[in-house]
Amino acid sequence: MFILKREDVDIKTMPHPGKDQPIPILSYQGQTFRLLSIFSAAQEEEARALWRDLTDNRGKACVLLEEPERFSIWGKVRLDQVEDTKGKVGPNRPLAQESHIKACLLLLQVLYMDVEDLLGPKQARQFESDMSGVFKAWQFPQTHSPQALKTLLTIDPLAMPQLPPWEEHHLHRLLEATHRIGKDYFGNADFAARALEALEDLPSDEQRDFRAWLQKSPTGKAWL
């Protein structure tokens, strides 16, 4: 829809209707847009490809915002769609299957370990920062403290006393972001096959179920 520069737009935040977190809102010529995805400056090609897919193939009204240090994609939204939910209790959206949350965490952790083992501690710290940005941008529950992030990156999800209360859309965003970040770090998608080996820690029926779910998911197919 639009490719814009930072000086073209106004970005403000407004309270999230159901959480104690701000929502970034981009305004341009009387239209408002909500943040969908963030890319580093080195990921220009991926950012443009996703923006074209959303606008040309999926018919979404989106802005691609170009900044010196990053690219971001914003989807059109009416402010009343957000504001109308304030103070109202809507139906609770179901959480993702626990086995799917465990599987996604296993993929995330193997990728983190690969970055640390193959690229070194400095890149591992950058990976932590990248994932913190993803969790913040998409408002993942129970990810906001450094300790919470460290737990998600290092504690075996099969041994976690309580899994994070993530919904299915969180898993889609996590798979999309980690695959994109993995390609950025390693230069190709070979890491995906190594990461999928971690699913062997799950019972065989959960492995089959998760792989079938990946195959049906637009963001998950890239991993297979």
Explain how this protein is built.
The protein has helices spanning 44-57, 79-83, 98-119, 121-137, 146-154, 168-186, 191-196, 204-216, and strands at 2-5, 10-15, 22-28, 31-40, 62-67, 70-76. A hairpin with a 6-residue loop joins β2 (10-15) and β3. The protein is globular, with a radius of gyration of 18 Å. Helices cover 47% and strands 18% of the residues. With 224 residues, it is an alpha+beta fold. The chain is built from eight helices and six strands; from the N terminus they run ββββαββααααααα. It has a six-stranded mixed sheet with strand order 1-5-6-4-3-2, with helices on one face. The protein has two domains: 2-83, Phosphorylase Kinase, domain 1 (2-Layer Sandwich), CATH 3.30.200; 98-223, no CATH class.
